[in-house]
Amino acid sequence: MSRTRRWLLFRLLALAFVPALLVAAELALRAVEEPVPTFALPAAWDQDVRVIPDHGRDDLMEIYTGAAGEQRARSSATMRQGRFMHEVDYAVQRPAGVFRVFCFGGSATLGVPVESTPEQTFPGRLQALLEEGGLQAEVINLGGASFGSSKVVELMSLAAGHQPSAFVVYSGNNEFFEYSLELHRHNAHQAERLLERRSGLRLVRWLFGASDRLRGVAPNAEPPGPQELELLQRALVRSAVEGEMAADPQASPERLGQLMRRRDAPYRAVVARYEANLDAMVQTARGVAPLILVTVPANLHEAPFEVAHSPSLSAGDLGRWERLVSRATEQLSAGELQQAVDTLDAAIALDPVHARAYALQGEALADLGDYQRAATSLHNALELDLAPGRPTAAQGEAIQALHDPPAVVVVDPSASFEAKSLAGGGKGYFHDSCHLTPEGYALLARHLVQPLLDAAAAAPTPE
Question: Alpha-carbon distance 164 to 172, whole Å?
Answer without folding.
Answer: 22
